[in-house]
Amino acid sequence: MALAPAWISVPRALSILYHAPSGCFQPELRPICGTGTTTAVSVPGRRRRRRLAVVTAASAASPASARGKGVEFIEEMRVAAMRLHTREQARDGKKEAPMEPPVAKWQPTVEGYLRFLVDSKLVFDTLDDIVHRATVPWYAEFQNTGLERSEPLQKDLAWFSLQGYAIPEPSAPGITYASYLEELSDKDPQAFLCHFYNVHFAHTAGGRIIGEKVAEKIHIHRELEFYQWEGDLSLLQQNVRGKLNQVASGWSRAEKDTCLDEMEKAFASSIDLRRHMFP
User: Residue 230, SS3?
Assistant: First the structure.
């Protein structure tokens, strides 16, 4: 399996993460906590650094100014995510308190981590099923993107089982979220796409760092398949970004706003899955 190159320098990222609330990791962005401005963690290559500067500038715009002003829709989604942070975490943060405690204060157990993995698998299974049924025609655009995590999670759970751990059944957070996604995919496709974006892209960013830190705390000396992708992850992401922009180009302004307004629910639902690992 060819592993995707890391987006960020892991030692630097973990240093930031250890002192920062886990909520300061949002889809596709680097940590933005600390000084109230975005923090660009080292990324190899001049071209990548230049791209980071563009992303940071777009993300710093206010949500109101970004909507309908010629900004690509994927950038509008990032700006909507910025609002879910506190002022201490990001200059344009709107939250009075972080949505979850700092990862450094988590007290995870293997059992809690397994519940998180099982619930995550149910959510990824549900997303895969929805896009493959494609009851909304443009859902088919998001089939076989390379970001799917169901099969890797199945392999990880099988590995834990071989180590003697009991694999739990899905619990309330996963069941509730999966049911919500099913309902939303039928009645509000634009809002559903917000969840599709958040679940996949948040996992490729802060989710990977959280996974490494939790594994360290519970002494799991193995890189899980959950945090590995076949091929170049940046290219897989670029492909999905292009599809998101293409699909959204046919939406009205009201439909785009429906998607953006769903971001807080998407964040909260993902945090509910991680509560198994909170202190």
Answer: strand
| β-bridge mates for residue 230, sequence order | 3
Q: Other CB atoms closer than 10 Å to residue 103's CB: what's the count?
A: 26
d(CA 237, CA 130): 20
Encoded tokens for 7: 């987006």
- What are the CB-based long-range contacts (under 8 Å, 24+) for 241-250? 241/74, 243/141, 243/142, 243/145, 244/73, 244/74, 244/77, 244/193, 244/197, 245/72, 245/73, 245/74, 246/141, 247/138, 247/141, 247/193, 248/73, 248/193, 249/73, 250/138
> Considering only CA atoms, which of 134, 250, 248, 249 is closest in space to residue 197?
248
pLDDT of 13: 37
112-169 pLDDT tens trace: 999 999 999 999 999 999 999 999 999 999 999 999 999 999 999 999 999 999 999 9
Structure tokens at 189: 């496709």
Report whether 167 contacts 161 (CB < 8 A).
yes
Query: pTM higher than 0.85, yes or no?
Result: no
CA neighbor of 224 nearest in space, from 266, 142, 163: 163
**pLDDT tens sequence across 190-228:** 999 999 999 999 999 889 989 999 999 999 999 999 999
What's the N-to-C CA distance of the chain in angstroms?
35
Partner residues linked to 102 by β-bridges: 21
